[in-house]
Amino acid sequence: MKQLLATLNPYRVRIAVIVGLLFIQALTTLYLPELMSKIVDNGVITGNMRYVAGVGEFMLGVTLLSVLCAVTAGLLASKTSAAFGKILRRRVFAQVQTFMPKDFEQLGTSSLTVRTTNDIMQVQQFVNMLLRMMVMAPLMAVGGIIMAIYTDARLSLIVLIIMPILAITIYQVLGRSVALFHMMQSKVDDLNRVLREHLTGVRVIRSFDRTDYELGRFNDANIALTAVSVRVYQIMAALMPILMLTMNFSTLAIIWFGGKLVSGGTMQIGSLMAFIQYVTQLMFSVMMVSAMFFMVPRAEASAQRINEVLAISPTVNNPPQPSAPGRTRGHVEFEDVTFRYPGAQTAVLSHISFRLKPGQMTALIGGTGSGKTTLISLIPRLADASSGRVLVDGVDVRALDQRVLRQKIGYAPQSAVLFSGSVAENIRFGNPDASLQHVQLAAEIAQANEFIERLPGGFDSMISQGGANLSGGQKHRLAMARALVRKAEIYIFDDTFSALDYKTDARLRAALHQATRDATVLIVSQRVSAVRDADQIIVLDDGVLAGVGTHQELMDSSETYRQIVTSQRTEEGTA
User: Fold this and answer.
1) How far is 193 from 201, CA to CA, in rounded Å?
2) pLDDT tens digits in sequence order for the chain, 575 residues long
3) Distance CA 301, CA 1 (A)
4) Rounded to whole angstroms, how far apart are CA atoms 119 and 298?
């Protein structure tokens, strides 16, 4: 929690103002019972109404000052806590942006979502409460005790009896609730994960008629969260009745013993009323502290979860002193590259070496699980090679600034990811400065104009989240247009042709050849028809390089390639 509260450092002056206002409010609140005592003893009982009016007017002024300080302090505290939440959300989001795909697996997407929203909101609410009560509650408690003893030391023995009772009660309740709050946040993660999986896989769920099964999974997660929530709030709910019962018994005892002192002439009525007010203020300050402590366990649990995100060290980082890019443009070279995932015993890629050149279209082919996507992810440095080097323009990618490296690359991933917004905005995501003319040209090369023109708003048509209102082929073509609008030196298309029909595939490859003649193009595909005309074909077999050459050269030299061609001959009519 202390690490997160350091985020408030830029607001030190504002916090100092809040502390000052709350200090004034506490002093004025503690002074009001004394004024009331004077009004009763020196005015009401003696019948001196002029004295009552004079002190009453002063008391009204003190009350207005207290209200003004309270309202101003509350406003500043709300603004400060909201700014704290904004900064914290930005820090967490920026941290997540540095994560590589493997980093997300440490916590999970659903957990990251909860930590960025719900957990930060819990800490923000705690900060708001802390700023409001960090001065008021302690000062009111200490001041109430001092003023109560000053008013009558004998009656103050009642306070000494009830304070240990309150302390033990609060300690017991909070001690039992801390672990439950940790468990509750974990159950929120589980519920969010089930809901997210249901929303993203709704088509599969309905296709296999598994709606009842998913409803059961959601109910299990929902019931588990409800059970923990009910348990923890039952414990916390017991705190307030105990506090109120203690306060009422204390008031009753004060009136009982104070009444005897008044009847014996050793205490005035106004002093008794003031003493009751001081003890009441003391009780309310304890209740304020308990309300703040009510939020402490959950805020502490949320703070730990937020710190876990901020503490994750990304697997891919910028070098301390990045190297300048080489003078060449578009050259890619793999030098004896081996890659294995952290903790894995076997390598996904073993001793891979090849070159990609500008003006050359290279195809990467291999069976499912052969390591094609892993291999291409090493070029934009979505992961780092375990051994060997990946060079771009003659410089090791680990020595380049990540932003500089990725500005050289136009990448269309295997899973076409689209964002909510217009068609033009999704294509322009690859190049925010692209004009509408360049957007239209990229869409034309990607053979996307065909369906974009049929949309009601053309390039201004809105795409729903994840591209749910488009087919798989349409999403892939927009993803390719997004890569092409970048005007990159290196283009990588990861199995983006698989969702296209053969006619569209042929037109796209012809247009792509013309548009990228000066760039380096790497196409990943499982279709022989999509790669046979490439200048260079790289064959992967279970993470090992099984051949490099043209279609005909590989037919003569690579058994793995011949098997792929033979398996597809009947389907595609190629040889």
Assistant:
1) 12
2) 667 777 788 888 988 999 899 888 888 888 888 888 878 877 777 777 887 888 888 889 989 999 999 999 999 999 999 999 999 999 999 888 888 777 777 777 777 888 888 889 988 988 888 888 777 788 888 888 888 888 777 788 887 887 788 778 777 777 777 677 778 878 888 888 888 788 777 778 877 788 888 889 889 999 999 998 888 888 777 777 877 788 788 888 888 888 888 887 777 888 888 888 888 888 778 777 776 766 777 788 788 888 888 888 877 888 888 888 877 888 999 999 999 887 777 889 999 999 999 989 999 998 888 889 899 999 999 888 989 999 999 899 999 998 899 899 999 988 888 888 898 999 999 888 889 999 999 999 988 888 888 888 888 988 887 777 888 888 888 999 999 998 889 999 988 887 778 788 888 888 888 888 889 999 998 878 778 888 999 999 888 998 899 989 999 888 888 888 888 765 544 44
3) 9
4) 9
Residue 188's CB is within 10 A of a number of other CB atoms, namely: 20
SS3 state at 549: strand
Cβ-contact 335, 353 below 8 angstroms: yes
66 within domain boundaries: yes
Six token digits for residue 442: 């990229």
- Provide the number of structural domains found in the chain: 3
Determine the Cα angle at 93 with ends 89 and 95, to 5°. 120
Compute the 3-state secondary structure of the chain and give helix, strand, coil in percent, each to the nearest 5. 65, 10, 25
Six-digit token string for 568: 């597809």
320 domain residue, yes or no: no
Cβ–Cβ < 8 Å for 114, 189: yes
Cα distance between residue 258 and residue 267, in whole Å: 8
pTM for the full predicted model: 0.71
**Tokens, residue 549:** 């050459």
Pseudo-torsion of CA 379, 383, 384, 389, nearest 10°? Answer: -20
- Do 482 and 496 share a structural domain? no
Question: Are both 131 and 187 inside the same structural domain?
Answer: yes
The letter for the amino acid at 90 is R
Location of structure tokens 């009552």: 52
User: Looking at the structure, do residues 118 and 221 belong to the same domain, yes or no?
Assistant: yes
Q: Do residues 80 and 14 both lie within one domain? A: yes
Name which of 228, 248, 243 is nearest 181 in CA terms: 228
Q: Please report the sign of the dihedral spanned by the C-alpha atoms of residue 207, residue 208, residue 212, residue 216.
A: negative
